[in-house]
Structures are given as C-alpha cells and as structure tokens.
Amino acid sequence: MADEQKPEGSPTPPSAGGEASQPPQKPAAPAAKPAAPKPAAAKPAAPAAGGHAAPPKPPATMAATPWTSDLAQELKERFAGRVLETSTYLGQNFIVAKPDSVIPVLEYLKLEADFDYLVDVTAVDWPKRAERFDLVYILYSFARNERLRVKTYIPEGYKPETAVTVHLAANWLEREVFDMFGIQFAGHPDMRRILLPEEWQGYPLRKDYSIIQQDQAWVRENLEIESGQ
Amino acid sequence: MKKLLNKIFLTDLFQGLWVTFRNQHPKYIYTEQYPAERPKVAERYRGAPRLNINPDNGETLCIACNLCALACPENLIVVTSERNEATRRKELTEFTYDTSRCMFCGLCEDACPVDALELTQDFELATYTREGQIWDRQMLEEGPKPTPYKC
Amino acid sequence: MPDATFLDSTELVLNMGPQHPSTHGVLRVILKLDGEKILGTECVIGYLHRGVEKIAENRTFAQFNPYVDRMDYVAAISNGLGYCLAVEKMLNIEAPPRAQAIRVILTELNRIASHLLWLGTHALDIGAITPVFYCLREREEALKIFEKYCGARLTTHAFRIGGLLYETYDGFEKDILAFCDWFLPKVDEYEELLTNNRIWVGRLKNVGILTADECKEYGVTGPVLRAAGVQWDLRKAQPYSGYEKYEFDIPTRQNGDTYDRYLVRMQEMRQSVRIMRQAVAAIPEGPIMGKVGKVIKPAVGEAYVSIEAPKGELGYYIVSDGATQPYRVRVRPPSFVNLQALDRMVRGALVADVVAVIGTLDIVLGEVDR
Q1: A206 to chain C: closest CA residue
Q2: CATH assignment of the domain containing A146
Q3: What CA–CA distance (Å, rounded) separates A27 from A23?
Q4: Does A64 touch chain C (CB under 8 A)?
Q5: pTM, whole model, 2 decimals?
Q6: C-alpha pair distances (Å), B101 with each of A32, B48, B127, B129, C80
Q7: ipTM value for the complex
Q8: Domain spanning C3-369: which superfamily?
Q9: Which residues of chain C have a CB within 8 Å of the CB of B41?
C-alpha cells in the first residue's frame, strides 16, 4: 500500500478528493486507488517497513507466569539446560527448548508423556531479534486432554531438525513453514514449497516481505498493465 | 409366487414412479424462475450499498466522518469532504465505493454512526465494465437500476 | 538376452485434477499406477492460495473477521466462531450467555449444512445422483435461516469479537425447531437410499482404512478419527461456547473405513439436531455483546484456540504485539492436515477408490490452500 509508485497516489486526502471528483469516465478507475494510501496514512507505521506496525516503545513482553506441574518439573530435570522455560499464559502451557533439543523433547513427550498428536507446526518472524524466528509446535495429548506448545528460537539460516521422524503429520506442516518463512528442515523427506509455485520469489510471511511488490511484478509480467493496487 | 406376480405387474417400477410423481407437487418445487421472478431476499440481506438521504429535506445523512472508510477491510471507500465556512461543518463532497472489491461483510454499515451508509436488498450488481463497478455518490444515493427482464 | 528386450511394465503416471469434478475443487493428485493399482500419490495444492495469514497481519482484529469465512466457505460460521473465540481468549473475555447459545445453534446448523454438502457430493462421486438434489434442498433451508439471521448465506460474517452483532429475528426459534422437525425424517430418507444400498456398500466398505493410531500419527481429526474408534470431540473434550450444557453423544465406529465415516457423519447430523433443540429451548435473555472496546487491542501474548469444525479440529494461533493488528495469525486447517493422510489411505487401492477417499475426507480447498 505504501509502496504506491504512482504520483496521483500521494496520500493526502485533498488530492485524492480532487481525483475522485472529476466527472469523466477515465478517472473513475484511479478514484478507487487513493483508497489504499489513505488508511496507510492513518496508521503511519503500516506496511512499508515490515508489513506490520511495530510498537514504538520497546516491546512489552508477554505476561507469562511459570508453569508448575509434575510434567514441567520432569521436563526441567530431564532436559536440564536444554528446556529453558516452562510457562503458562492465559491458561495455556508452553515450554521453550533449545533449537537442537526440540526433537528429543518431542520424542520424550510422545513416548513418555502421551503427547501423541502433533496439532500444528508454525513459525513467527521477529526481524529485530537476534534469533529471528519462533518455531512453534503445538501438541495435544488424548490421554491427558491437555495441550502444550513447544517453542524454540532460531536464527536465520539455522536448519532445525525435522519432526517427521517423530510425528508423520509434520511433513506438510514443515513444508508450509518452509514455504512461508524459508526455514529449511534438515532431514525432511521432501523439502519443497507446498502452497506457492516452485518459482516463487521470497517467503511471504516474513515481515520484510511486501505483498504489493510481488503483486505489481506479477501483474506487470503477466497482464502487461500497471497494477491497480 | 408373490415374487413372480410382483415381477409381472412391475410393482417396483410403479412404486418408484409413485415416489417421483409425489415429488411433482408444486410444494416441492425449489427452483427459482430467476429473471422472470425476482427472488425475495431476507430483510437483513447485505447487498448493494446505499447512501441514505434525509427524506425531509433531500440532503444526505452522511456527515463525512470517514469511519466507514477506516472500518473497511478492503479500503474501498473514499470519502472526501469540504469545510463549509458558513456553517463551520464538514460537508460531503464525493463518496466512492468500489463494489468490485466489496465482500459485503457489513463492517462499514456497522461503523456508520448516523445510519447513512447501508447495505440494501438489491443484488443485481453486474456491469459491463470495471469502471461501472465503482459507484460514485450519485449512484449510491439513487441505487442500481437493473434493466427489467421481459419475457 | 539383455534385459531391455523384456516387455517393460513401467508405472503409469496419471494426473487427476485440478479441474476434475470429483476432486472437490482445485486439488490435483498425481497418481502413480500399476495398471489400476495405486503405487503412490502426490497432492499438488495451492491453486486457491490467497495468503490469508498475510492478509491478517495487515488488518485489524475486527477487519480480519470476514476473511476467515472464506477459508472453509462451506462452514463459514464455524470458522468465524473459532476466530472470535481465539481473539476473545486473547482479550480474556467471554461472550454473554445469550450470544453463546445463539452461536451454538448457528454453528450446529452450519455443521448440518456442511455435512449435507459433503453427503451430496460424496454420493455423486460414487454414482448416486439423487442424494445431491435432496441434500442441497435441505441445505437451502439452513442457508435461508442464515440469510434471515445475518443477511448472507455462505460467507456469513455472523459473529463479532465479544459476542454477536445481530439479535435474533422474530420467529428464529420457531424456524430452527421447524427445521429440526422437518430435517430428521430426511436423514432417515438418505439412510434409506444409501446405507443398505449394494453399490454404496460395495464401493465404501473396507476402502481407505485409517486406523486410530494412524489417525493420531497423521494428526487427522474430526469424523475420520471418530470412525476409527476414538471417541474424541473437542466439544466434549474441551468445551467452548457453552457446549458443556448440552447433552449429546459422540458417534463412533470401529473400522475406520469410508463406510464408517459415512455412518458417523449421518449420526452427527442427528446429534446436531439434538443440540439445537436443547439450545433453542434454553436461550437465555440478556445482552448479546460483551464488554469489548471500539478498538480491539489484546495485550502482548499468544494463544491457541481450537474448535470442532465439521471437518475436524480448526485452530487459531494468534500472536499479538499489543497493536490493533494481529502480529501473526496461524490457522490450523483440518482439511489440510487430513488431506495429508490421503496417500496412506489409497496406497494399494484402485483408482476409483481415490474418488471415494477424497470424498470421505471432506476437504474444502479454500481451507487447504487458504
């Protein structure tokens, strides 16, 4: 949105109004365009920088409280120094593990603690942090009727080990993480893009990825017109 | 024996045909004869947008507060206004609404504090051009005028 | 003699989809065949990818709400419910009881509508033409109720964060009860047409078996899991939106084949009617909107909330950095995860079984691709 390159897209509302009020048919199309820059002006920090308005102050942290239970205790003992944090937030438990010990933790949780259902694998991009990505595994135990999130923080370029060896469900989920974030999983049987075409450039869910740029390039190449976005 | 008679007199066939015949009753007809008969949509139907006019004085109800434009997920509403020096109030000059991008979620009508913008029961929004999908203030106030179907 | 002169029976690669009518949308399956036998499959998905998760990052919490309807567009109300519950969890609020009851009614009605579409198209794939007309006729009545309630039939945007926007219309309860009374005999009618039908049974029995352990391994949920004998339903396991107040059973079967999944879903429709009747009888009075500010701004944090959608576990993992826009919204789509088990289910089966198995997985490509 803020990547608008056209001169008439200058974000001040009066000029947009001038555009829109011209009666002939042709400006009818541009009339819709100023719609995009306007809200961008209203929310100043919006897409250009990172696709998301970062809070101006140093980010407040999640008000998580320590999670105490037998399982948390056991995890801490067994993986001393490798499970960094056992916390709970809004009644949802999560643990933070070191990147290289995620798979042993998942394995332990599956075999010893009945967390036999891998619900989801996903990632979150924090471009300003040294370890850029959160890698999140959401687990569920049918026997305990409990959910648990296993998180790990990984820097860019780090290749976490695949979880397919523990849970088969991780196959497509990890492929999607690769597709969207560019995190390569070591040992994954089929590390290809899944939702986007093979020739796609970039990783869309990274914060520095601008949707508008890609869209404009695509429209220019395939439709040979200027994108209306 | 009974089986044989059933076979000779085609009982199964007639049973089946009876089911078919029963369903011929007009009560069971669900097909809408669309262009000939316009379907009745629900009262709360979210269709074509309309900018309401005050029936007493013919002026627009819109106060150009821009809340609908901010609420719209698709950023398809542009409201422009002018400050009237005499009354010292903002007055609406132009209002464009791009129905081609609209998903009729109704967030703009929720946001409107004066019930000026409303999604109406009109649903015939097809046009021949992309430009025709972008409605200006006049179009929004008058509503779409689909050509009536003649058989 | 050199090997090359032997008649070489190499595998045949057959491309099914993306415009094949029985792949339910734009799913493309590449089949590796030995004659009629399937040696392996590969799903090519993403034709309907719209980048919903990226869109979410550029919208406010309230603005993203209509987009979730467009993932599983057959069960838009379930999607909306999941999203609203997730954001409500982030805000640490709960919808008022009246809103919860109405949400339950509409969600169950939507489950019926979704299952009806599944049944109709599944039967059509197998070769039974009649059920699809019956099912769409009944679904029409459900969609009419949605239209009357919120003004849209498919992509409803019925719920808002914190409760509901629309109060029930006059005669809502009556409409629901009338639908329930009218609908139950129709389920019997479908069963009459299909359950003991020889072709139906022959095509479905022992096709696409997925055992309980395999289901867990692949993360498969919903009716597929229940047909394998696992009595697990999030509405019971971790009740949300007041489901603990209603009495209903979790239908299960033991074989985990396509036929059992059919029976489970038929039972589920009946159970949905049961829930709706109870909920309509006890809609509490009161407000329908909780205490939510004009600007929705959850505290920094994250939450994962999931519901039992008609297709399985639908989860939303939301990360907030304290702004008005979500920092990250991850949707855990049941169709996507369930589809992954397709390969296991059809390996060694025949080509015609692929159609049956895709039908029984009840995928919606809008949700698979997002």
Answers
A1: C54
A2: 3.30.460.80
A3: 8
A4: yes
A5: 0.82
A6: 10, 12, 14, 14, 21
A7: 0.83
A8: Cytochrome-c3 Hydrogenase, chain B (1.10.645.10)
A9: 147
